Amino acid sequence: MKIKVVANVLEANEARAVENRRLLDQNGVLCVNMMSAPGSGKTTLLQKTLAALDAGGTPSAVLVGDLQTSRDAERLADGKAQIVQINTGQGCHLTSSQVTHGLRELDLSGLAFLFIENVGNMVCPASFDLGEHAKVVLLSTAEGNDKIAKYPVLFQQADVILLTKVDLAGVLEYDKSRVYEDLKHINTRAPVIELSAKTGQGVNQWLTWLKERRQSLKDRS
Ligand code: MG
Ligand code: ZN
Q1: Which ligand is nearest to the CA of 115?
Q2: C-alpha 61 to ligand 2 mean position (Å)
Q3: Backbone Cα Rg of the chain
């Protein structure tokens, strides 16, 4: 019986996700779902990303998922981007219906990008389609180089993998080769961008990836 309940929850989530995606498609908004462990640098990267998009006159928005507090949303609120906080309470992942509620708070017309900062968690966010067009998975050097094999479902689904805090690689004696080796078995499709929000390394590559994805969305419609 339990298995059936889980299947129904995921089916209902999927149906809503399809509606979210349709609404985003209609408005030409590229939506990316950003997933990672807590502390891998999602909010910091978003701050840099929004600043760059602002500077280029590109309108963007963020739905920020957190169990408690609006700390991340406050960090993101100093630019032109629309920011909506979703507090999940006990929930350790965002669901598509929470995203639907968040979408109602946004003005989608003219918007280019919608970023969803998922709850910091490497397990269940991977099972919940939110209606995004792409899944972005961050892995910071500070977390170690063994996480890809430990959390394969998350990394399998990634459309791009951001290896963050690479400025710390020297201090941490970080062996990147393990990351690339594990990915050969788990995901050979997603590009890996080595990135540091602090030094700016990889940020342009990330912005280029975003713009190319948005262009291909527009080309399809
Ligand atoms: Mg955050
Ligand atoms: Zn969860």
Answers
A1: 1
A2: 23
A3: 17
Half-sphere exposure (CA, 13 Å, Cβ side) for 199? Answer: 11
Residues with CB under 5 A from ligand 1 (ion): 42-43, 72
Choose the CATH number for 9-220 among 3.60.21.10, 3.40.50.2000, 3.40.50.300, 3.40.50.620: 3.40.50.300
Q: What is the pLDDT of residue 179?
A: 97
Extract the residue ranges of the chain whose pLDDT is less than 70. Answer: 1-2
Distance 71 CA to ligand 1 centre (A): 8
The pTM of the full predicted model, rounded to 2 decimals, is: 0.95
Amino acid at position 137, single letter: V
Domain boundaries, the chain: 9-220
Nearest Cα neighbor of 190 from 136, 133, 123, 114 is 136
Check residue 1 and give its pLDDT.
57
Q: How many CA atoms lie within 13 A of 166 on its CB side?
A: 18
DSSP state of 56: T
Ligand nearest to the CA of 41: 1
What is the whole-number distance in angstroms between the Cα of residue 37 and the centre of ligand 1? 10
Q: What residues contact 104, with CB distance under 8 A and at least 6 apart? A: none
C-alpha of residue 125 to centroid of ligand 2, in Å: 6
Within a 10 A sphere around the Cβ of 4, how many other Cβ atoms?
8
